[in-house]
Amino acid sequence: MDAPRLAIVVVAAGSGTRLGHETPKAFVELHGRTILEHALHGVFGATHAAQVIVVAPAPLVAQARTIAERAAGAASGYVTVVAGGDTRQASVAAGLRALADGVDAVLVHDAARALAPSALIDRVASAVLAGGEAGVIPALPVVDTVKRVDGDAVVGAVDRSDLVHVQTPQGFPRTELLAAYAGATDDHTDDAALYAGAGHRVVTVPGEPRAFKITTPWDLSRAARLLDAGSGIRTGVGIDVHRYDDTVPLWLGGVYFADEPGLAGHSDGDAVIHAMCDALLSAAGLGDIGSRFGSAAPEFAGAASEVFLRETLALVEGAGYRVGNVAVQVIAARPRLAPRRMEIEAHLGELVGAPVSVAATTSDGLGFAGDGSGLVAIATALVTR
Ligand code: CTP
Ligand code: MG
């Protein structure tokens, strides 16, 4: 492995008193994974290669190693796991003792910031790797009005314009950070305070709302809700193929084409709409057009395919999904779709109530779509909960 210039110390050795679980906080489950694994996903998603040092409670070092290696995947050679101490500062110090040779920039990150995005880690890492002795911390403006109180009495207003909330990861040049830690006498709540206490400059980069720290049960529930929203997006795919039949009219994408051979098949053979239905059903996890509507069902013989589309949309909505968009690609030697593409897109978009894009290509003369014996439509759909 090439020796990385960067190390990321992920502190996960706290007990999580305020969260109130028996399990230490970083090992509490959030949406099917531990908080630590979520945090490490952000870390291993960063573009900068880094030695990743996980600081775990002593009894959970082996479990932390399993979690870290799973999160690292092919990058498991970059992982070091050590036991932490009684305070956050002691845990960071334990992590710093494991720094590999060749590392000259160090990020310190809270495992409790489970949803901190990789982009934030890259932002801090880039600023520190650019050189200089300043520490780099992510910050967000304070948006609420701030008051000074004495008991429950408001005794003054505080100008919030020069106040920020700070987050992790916080980045520092290695030599200066190690010296600051070696000389620290007080306990600090973050590394920037310790670093500034040693006389160094600290600068901010923009923070990320998703990098909030999970401290209370409310925070854990909020993180779960954000993850729910993300996984409420689903995609689906559908393909339909029909043979040409010049005894029937051509309906494609819900519009009529004069003077073109039609498509054989149950209903009107509109392969574009059939592929869209399959993609929508697939996205919503509802099976496919054949199993839903039965290709032999007499009530659908010769039916306009728009009937299937309406029924499909009702099923998708009934399952709690809203359609984001649908895209269709037609592969055929004929008809020429380009002149009517906009019309088809507008018509289908109105039926679906979401954007529908339609594209067409030939298959360069190859196969049944090339020799004019049949037509293929491929559709994808995106739905959200
Ligand atoms: N941390 C640590 N070692 C400690 C204390 C804290 O590694 N002795 C880590 C936590 O695991 C967490 C981060 O520092 O990722 C921020 O600390 P905090 O949110 O305060 O976590 P806890 O100390 O675990 O929670 P609490 O203060 O509610 O007990
Ligand atoms: Mg704490």
Shape: elongated
Could you tell me the radius of gyration in angstroms?
29 Å
The number of distinct helices, counting runs of at least 4 residues, comes to 12
Task: Give the CA-CA distance, first to last residue.
Answer: 43 Å
Report the average pLDDT across residues: 93
Low-confidence stretches: none
- Name every ligand kind in the structure: cytidine-5'-triphosphate, magnesium ion
Count of DSSP E strands? 19
Based on secondary structure, the structural category is alpha/beta
Write up what this structure looks like.
The chain has 385 residues and is of the alpha/beta class. The chain contains twelve helices and 19 strands. The longest helix is centred in the middle third of the chain and has 15 residues, at 217-231. It is elongated and about 90 Å long. The model has no long low-confidence stretch (mean pLDDT 93). The protein binds cytidine-5'-triphosphate (CTP) and magnesium ion (MG). Cytidine-5'-triphosphate (CTP) binds next to helix 3. Cytidine-5'-triphosphate binds at residues 11-19, 25-26, 55, 84-88, 91, 110-112, 213, 215.
